[in-house]
Specification:
CATH superfamily of the largest domain: Tetratricopeptide repeat domain
Shape: globular
Number of domains: 2
Order of helices and strands: HHHHHHHHHH
Number of strands: 0
Oligomer: single chain
Largest sheet: none
Structural class: mainly alpha
Strand content: under 5%
CATH class of the largest domain: Mainly Alpha
Helix content: over 70%
CATH topology of the largest domain: Serine Threonine Protein Phosphatase 5, Tetratricopeptide repeat
Distance between the termini: 49 Å
Number of helices: 10
Protein backbone atom coordinates (compact mmCIF):
# COMPACT_ATOMS: atom_id res chain seq x y z
CA UNK A 1 0.00 0.00 0.00
CA UNK A 2 1.23 3.50 -0.79
CA UNK A 3 1.36 6.66 1.24
CA UNK A 4 3.23 7.75 4.33
CA UNK A 5 2.70 6.10 7.72
CA UNK A 6 0.63 8.09 10.26
CA UNK A 7 2.52 10.51 12.46
CA UNK A 8 0.92 9.03 15.55
CA UNK A 9 -0.45 5.56 16.19
CA UNK A 10 -4.13 4.70 15.84
CA UNK A 11 -5.08 2.92 19.07
CA UNK A 12 -8.26 1.51 17.54
CA UNK A 13 -10.42 2.93 20.32
CA UNK A 14 -9.92 4.62 23.66
CA UNK A 15 -8.31 1.77 25.57
CA UNK A 16 -4.61 1.90 24.60
CA UNK A 17 -2.01 1.38 27.32
CA UNK A 18 0.72 3.82 26.33
CA UNK A 19 0.86 5.54 29.72
CA UNK A 20 0.69 4.20 33.25
CA UNK A 21 0.52 0.45 32.45
CA UNK A 22 1.54 -0.55 35.97
CA UNK A 23 -1.45 1.26 37.52
CA UNK A 24 -3.80 -0.42 35.03
CA UNK A 25 -2.66 -3.90 36.07
CA UNK A 26 -4.85 -3.90 39.17
CA UNK A 27 -7.87 -4.23 36.85
CA UNK A 28 -6.89 -7.86 36.23
CA UNK A 29 -7.71 -8.69 39.84
CA UNK A 30 -11.43 -8.16 39.48
CA UNK A 31 -12.08 -4.51 40.35
CA UNK A 32 -15.29 -3.52 38.54
CA UNK A 33 -15.54 0.13 39.55
CA UNK A 34 -13.04 3.00 39.52
CA UNK A 35 -10.88 3.09 42.63
CA UNK A 36 -10.97 6.91 42.60
CA UNK A 37 -12.88 9.43 40.54
CA UNK A 38 -10.56 10.43 37.66
CA UNK A 39 -11.58 14.09 37.96
CA UNK A 40 -10.48 14.03 41.60
CA UNK A 41 -7.18 12.35 40.69
CA UNK A 42 -6.59 14.95 37.99
CA UNK A 43 -7.18 17.79 40.43
CA UNK A 44 -4.97 16.19 43.09
CA UNK A 45 -2.22 15.69 40.53
CA UNK A 46 -2.29 19.34 39.50
CA UNK A 47 -2.32 20.43 43.15
CA UNK A 48 0.69 18.21 43.88
CA UNK A 49 2.60 19.70 40.96
CA UNK A 50 1.77 23.28 42.01
CA UNK A 51 2.97 22.42 45.53
CA UNK A 52 6.33 21.17 44.22
CA UNK A 53 5.66 17.44 44.68
CA UNK A 54 6.44 16.29 41.14
CA UNK A 55 6.67 12.57 41.83
CA UNK A 56 3.29 12.59 43.59
CA UNK A 57 1.90 14.58 40.67
CA UNK A 58 3.10 12.05 38.11
CA UNK A 59 1.67 9.15 40.10
CA UNK A 60 -1.72 10.81 40.57
CA UNK A 61 -1.96 11.89 36.94
CA UNK A 62 -1.01 8.41 35.72
CA UNK A 63 -3.79 7.05 37.94
CA UNK A 64 -6.18 9.60 36.41
CA UNK A 65 -5.27 8.34 32.93
CA UNK A 66 -5.88 4.72 33.96
CA UNK A 67 -9.22 5.52 35.60
CA UNK A 68 -10.38 7.63 32.65
CA UNK A 69 -9.70 4.66 30.40
CA UNK A 70 -11.65 2.41 32.74
CA UNK A 71 -14.78 4.60 32.71
CA UNK A 72 -14.48 4.91 28.90
CA UNK A 73 -14.63 8.70 28.89
CA UNK A 74 -12.58 9.92 25.89
CA UNK A 75 -12.86 13.62 26.76
CA UNK A 76 -11.58 13.01 30.29
CA UNK A 77 -8.91 10.62 29.03
CA UNK A 78 -7.61 13.23 26.59
CA UNK A 79 -7.50 15.88 29.33
CA UNK A 80 -5.64 13.56 31.69
CA UNK A 81 -3.16 12.56 28.99
CA UNK A 82 -2.48 16.15 27.98
CA UNK A 83 -2.04 17.21 31.61
CA UNK A 84 0.32 14.30 32.28
CA UNK A 85 2.20 15.15 29.09
CA UNK A 86 2.60 18.76 30.19
CA UNK A 87 4.03 17.76 33.58
CA UNK A 88 6.34 15.17 32.00
CA UNK A 89 7.57 17.80 29.56
CA UNK A 90 8.19 20.38 32.27
CA UNK A 91 10.10 17.74 34.23
CA UNK A 92 12.37 17.18 31.19
CA UNK A 93 10.93 13.79 30.22
CA UNK A 94 10.28 14.47 26.51
CA UNK A 95 9.95 10.85 25.41
CA UNK A 96 7.24 10.10 27.98
CA UNK A 97 5.54 13.41 27.22
CA UNK A 98 5.45 12.47 23.54
CA UNK A 99 3.76 9.16 24.38
CA UNK A 100 1.04 11.04 26.24
CA UNK A 101 0.51 13.63 23.51
CA UNK A 102 0.52 11.06 20.70
CA UNK A 103 -2.22 9.13 22.46
CA UNK A 104 -4.15 12.30 23.33
CA UNK A 105 -4.05 13.40 19.68
CA UNK A 106 -5.45 10.06 18.57
CA UNK A 107 -8.16 10.00 21.24
CA UNK A 108 -9.20 13.55 20.28
CA UNK A 109 -9.27 12.64 16.60
CA UNK A 110 -11.61 9.71 17.31
CA UNK A 111 -13.82 11.98 19.43
CA UNK A 112 -13.85 14.76 16.79
CA UNK A 113 -12.30 17.12 19.36
CA UNK A 114 -10.47 19.52 17.05
CA UNK A 115 -9.17 21.90 19.76
CA UNK A 116 -7.75 19.01 21.79
CA UNK A 117 -6.23 17.37 18.71
CA UNK A 118 -4.66 20.64 17.53
CA UNK A 119 -3.27 21.38 21.00
CA UNK A 120 -1.76 17.89 21.31
CA UNK A 121 -0.19 18.08 17.85
CA UNK A 122 1.25 21.55 18.50
CA UNK A 123 2.92 20.25 21.65
CA UNK A 124 4.23 17.21 19.78
CA UNK A 125 5.75 19.49 17.15
CA UNK A 126 7.55 21.58 19.77
CA UNK A 127 8.97 18.53 21.54
CA UNK A 128 10.17 17.07 18.23
CA UNK A 129 11.80 20.42 17.42
CA UNK A 130 13.60 20.32 20.76
CA UNK A 131 14.84 16.82 19.94
CA UNK A 132 16.31 18.03 16.65
CA UNK A 133 13.75 16.15 14.52
CA UNK A 134 13.07 19.09 12.24
CA UNK A 135 11.39 17.26 9.37
CA UNK A 136 8.88 15.50 11.62
CA UNK A 137 8.23 18.67 13.61
CA UNK A 138 7.52 20.61 10.41
CA UNK A 139 5.16 17.88 9.20
CA UNK A 140 3.21 18.02 12.47
CA UNK A 141 3.06 21.84 12.28
CA UNK A 142 1.52 21.50 8.85
CA UNK A 143 -1.09 19.16 10.32
CA UNK A 144 -2.00 21.80 12.88
CA UNK A 145 -2.29 24.43 10.14
CA UNK A 146 -4.59 22.16 8.12
CA UNK A 147 -6.79 21.47 11.15
CA UNK A 148 -7.06 25.14 12.10
CA UNK A 149 -7.76 26.27 8.55
CA UNK A 150 -10.59 23.73 8.28
CA UNK A 151 -12.60 25.38 11.07
CA UNK A 152 -13.90 28.95 11.27
CA UNK A 153 -13.67 28.92 15.08
CA UNK A 154 -10.33 27.10 15.30
CA UNK A 155 -8.42 27.40 18.61
CA UNK A 156 -5.95 30.28 18.67
CA UNK A 157 -3.16 28.96 20.87
CA UNK A 158 -2.37 25.71 19.00
CA UNK A 159 -2.25 27.65 15.73
CA UNK A 160 0.02 30.28 17.29
CA UNK A 161 2.23 27.59 18.83
CA UNK A 162 2.64 25.84 15.49
CA UNK A 163 3.56 29.13 13.80
CA UNK A 164 6.11 29.81 16.55
CA UNK A 165 7.52 26.30 16.18
CA UNK A 166 7.79 26.70 12.42
CA UNK A 167 9.56 30.06 12.80
CA UNK A 168 12.08 28.51 15.19
CA UNK A 169 12.59 25.57 12.83
CA UNK A 170 13.28 27.91 9.91
CA UNK A 171 15.55 30.24 11.83
CA UNK A 172 18.89 30.29 10.02
CA UNK A 173 17.52 28.75 6.82
CA UNK A 174 14.61 30.95 5.75
CA UNK A 175 14.82 34.54 4.62
CA UNK A 176 14.02 37.47 6.88
CA UNK A 177 10.73 38.16 5.08
CA UNK A 178 9.40 34.62 5.63
CA UNK A 179 10.45 34.65 9.28
CA UNK A 180 8.84 38.05 9.75
CA UNK A 181 5.53 36.76 8.38
CA UNK A 182 5.62 33.72 10.69
CA UNK A 183 6.42 35.70 13.83
CA UNK A 184 3.88 38.39 12.91
CA UNK A 185 1.12 35.82 12.42
CA UNK A 186 2.04 34.10 15.68
CA UNK A 187 2.09 37.41 17.58
CA UNK A 188 -1.37 38.34 16.29
CA UNK A 189 -2.82 35.06 17.51
CA UNK A 190 -1.03 35.19 20.87
CA UNK A 191 -2.31 38.73 21.40
CA UNK A 192 -5.88 37.64 20.60
CA UNK A 193 -5.51 34.71 23.01
CA UNK A 194 -4.11 36.93 25.77
CA UNK A 195 -0.78 35.09 26.07
CA UNK A 196 1.48 37.97 27.04
CA UNK A 197 4.60 35.84 27.58
CA UNK A 198 4.60 34.38 24.07
CA UNK A 199 3.55 37.73 22.62
CA UNK A 200 6.64 39.34 24.15
CA UNK A 201 8.80 36.58 22.64
CA UNK A 202 7.30 37.18 19.20
CA UNK A 203 7.84 40.94 19.47
CA UNK A 204 11.47 40.34 20.43
CA UNK A 205 12.05 38.25 17.30
CA UNK A 206 10.23 40.81 15.15
CA UNK A 207 12.37 43.64 16.54
CA UNK A 208 15.51 41.65 15.80
CA UNK A 209 14.40 40.99 12.21
CA UNK A 210 13.52 44.65 11.64
CA UNK A 211 16.94 45.66 12.96
CA UNK A 212 18.84 43.49 10.51
Amino acid sequence: MGGNPPLYPDPGGILPTTCAPSWSQHRAYGSLTPVFDPETLLKRGLDAYKNHRPEDALDLLAQAVAEARWVANPALLARALRTLGQVECEMKHPATALDCYFEAASVCEHAADLPGQADSLARIADILRGQGKAARAEAVCNQVFALCQSQADAPLLPHASALRCMALLKDGTAGAEELHLLWLAASTLYESAGDTVRLAECKSHLAFLLGQ
